[in-house]
Every structure is written in structure tokens, then in C-alpha cells.
Amino acid sequence: MMKKMSKDTKLLQFVSEAGILKRISRSGWWVLGIKDAETVAEHSFRCAVIGYIIARMEGVPPYEVLLMCLFNDIHEARINDLHKMAQRYIRYEKAEDEAFKEQISSLPGVVKTELSATRSEYKKQRTRSSIIARDADILECLIQAKEYHEYGFKEASKFTKKAPGFLKTKTAKRLWSRAKTTSLNEWWEELSEFKR
Fold it and tell me: How far apart are CA 51 and CA 48, in angstroms?
């Protein structure tokens, strides 16, 4: 007989499950031989930062964008991150939907309803918030690829060929255009210079 769990216990279990994303590496990078590739949680964090920036620059309230960015890959705590080659053979979108639906099924109504609606909106790509969140996801991947390339992983530049064509907002396109021609390490190099 299963014991009845409190609402708080269910919330804590969801939070604990989200923590698994700190240990799941993004698999597209390890295909390139990057042993210590970013985790899903690291990607989601910077995606949210980028989403916030794009939303503000585009004049869109950022709350929904932030939710979409933070929870877009939550299902990967259960089914892992699958690179594009693996997705050729697996009905990944269906698995994502099933994992997400089950993940939120025992959450309190208001949380469950909001997360479900947010995911649905993101998938449909019909609102400015969802388009910005998707651009943030793409731009984060592009910036990560550029950083890996600058760190010596030459193959990472292959990730920057097709993806820019999917960017839709002026801000994301502008930021990527600048990122392509800028050393992304300049900010810390300048701060590291010794001054007397």
C-alpha cells in the first residue's frame, strides 16, 4: 500500500528531480569529444539569462520567457539529453511529453496548470514569449559552440552553421552577429590585467 504524500513532499521531490539536471551533460558536445561538457542545468540557467535580456530588449514582459527557459528541458531529468543522431531513431518528442506530463502530475494544481500551459505555449511557438524563449535556447547553444571553439574544440563551429537561420527576433540575430566576430573571453582578460 502506497502512503499518501503531503503537497510539500511532492514539491520537494520535484525540486530534487530537477537537481538531476546538474549531473546530465548535454550529449551533442560529448559527441565532439568534450569530456566536461556543460550540463542541462547550466544550459537552462544561461538560457534564462539570455531569455530575460531578449525579452527586455524586445519590450516583452520576461516572466513567461523565464519559465519557458527554465523548464524547457526538465523532462531530461528522466529521459536524458539526446543528441540529434539518437533522435533519428527514437520518438523523442513523444517521450519528452510523456515524461513531462508524469513529472508534473502530482504537483499542486496552480503549479501543474501553469507549467503545463507554459510548455504548450512554447511548443506551439505562436506568442512573442515562446519565440523569444526559443531564440534564447538557440542563442545559448550558439554561444556555447563559439566558446568551445575558442577553447580549442574546432569541430564545435559546425554547430554554428545551420542554427542561426532559426533565430527570429532582431535582438537574438543582432547578438549572434556580434558574437561571431567578438572574442567571448575579452571581458575576463581585461579584468585579469594586473594594475598598480
Answer: 5
Segment holding 165, helix H or strand E: none
Taking the model in full, what pTM does it have? Answer: 0.93
Closest CA to 175 of 51, 37, 40, 28: 51
- What domain range includes position 52? 7-192
The label of the residue with cell 515562446 reads 130
Neighbours of 35 (CB within 10 A): 7
Q: Is residue 110 part of a domain?
A: yes
Predicted local distance difference test score (pLDDT) of residue 123 = 97
CA 122 vs CA 10, 69, 118, 151, 176: distances in Å? 25, 9, 6, 32, 22
Give residue 53's pLDDT: 98
Which CATH number covers residue 60? 1.10.3210.10
The answer to whether residue 105 sits within a structural domain is yes
Q: Distance between terminal CA atoms of the chain?
A: 70
Domain count of the fold of the chain:
1
- Write out residues in the chain with pLDDT < 50, as ranges: none
